[in-house]
Known about the structure:
Helices cover 74% and strands 4% of the residues. The protein is mainly alpha-helical and 198 residues long. The two termini are 36 Å apart.
Amino acid sequence: QFVVGFSIPILIMLFFIHGLFSPKNVTIIADFGFAKLGLEGVLYTIKLVGSLLVFLGSFFLFTVTTHPGKLVTSLVEAGMKPKAGYLILATFQIVPQMQGRLSIIRQAQMARGVEVEGNLLTRFTAFIPLIGPLVMGSLVDMQERGMTLETRGFGVTGVKTTSYVEIIDRPLDKLIRKILIGFLIVVTLISIVMYFIR
């Protein structure tokens, strides 16, 4: 539902841009006077939106089914630097944290009598004062987290880091990983060949 709702405005925008005003349009489906709807532009729009839906759906499925802590722990155990792993973990956590902070600020404003619900203009007017506390709170939270990590020796080199999350790599996991790597190589080779023979 989130992926489809996000892609509908993009679909409408691309439909108008490529469907009506693309220079590649040769086969005319409909003539509106000021612009002509072309088959080539519509097909190109469907291709772009399909690729976008696949990407967003894959990313959404990945974020829902993969625990960020287990992902970062696996990457660090595979040889990635802990600082790079922390950046990945912070990237996954920043959106839920900002959503939670935004909800707290909205509830605080509602408790003070500020109108935050209603029509679009009212919501937009109420959203502008939220930006300052949201950004400043996020920056303070990042600074406090960085100071906490430094006091715990996160930036010390030559020391093996430990994790609360334990990753069990079973033989089935290794087999599936090898199959997926092989599938990725095959798909990449087929894509390269199809690109050059086209």
